[in-house]
Amino acid sequence: MPAKHVTEASRAIFEAFNIVPFYEPKVIEISFELKKTIPDYVDCVIVATAITLKEDLATEDSTILANKESIRKRYGIGLVNYRQLVA
């Protein structure tokens, strides 16, 4: 792929998405709290980022979805899977 296409694709991604560094202090703090119930740290960071942004999260991860009610109660965000999202 030519460099021009990579540059254009990167620009489009940065314009379309809000990029939140995983090392933001609040993301780290919440991800360590979540580690008690979600064993995969990358999943913890994803959920912690949604919590930090106060945004609902669409996921197909069964462990995250199994904890959706406790996450909603504690942090105030919703978790949905694809079927719920398109229904």
Q: List unreliable stretches of 5+ residues.
A: none
Beta-strand share of residues: under 5%
Number of domains: 1
Major sheet characteristics: 2 strands, parallel
Structural class, please? mainly alpha
Biggest sheet strand line-up: 1-2
Shape: globular
Helix and strand pattern:
HHHEHHEH
State the share of residues found in helices, binned by percent: 55-70%
The residue-averaged pLDDT reads 91
Query: How many DSSP-defined strands?
Result: 2
Count helical runs: 6
Amino- and carboxy-terminal Cα gap: 37 Å
Q: What is the CA-based Rg, rounded? A: 15 Å
Describe this entry's structure for a reader:
The protein is built from 6 helices and 2 strands; from the N terminus they run H-H-H-E-H-H-E-H. It is mainly α. It has one domain (20-86). The longest helix is centred in the N-terminal third of the chain and has 14 residues, at 3-16. It is globular.
In short:
With 87 residues, the chain is mostly helical.
What key attributes describe this structure?
87 residues; mainly alpha; two-stranded parallel sheet; 6 helices
Which secondary structure elements does this structure contain, and how are they paired or packed?
Elements: H1 3-16, H2 25-34, H3 41-53, E1 57-58, H4 62-66, H5 68-75, E2 79-80, H6 82-86
Parallel strand pairs: 1-2
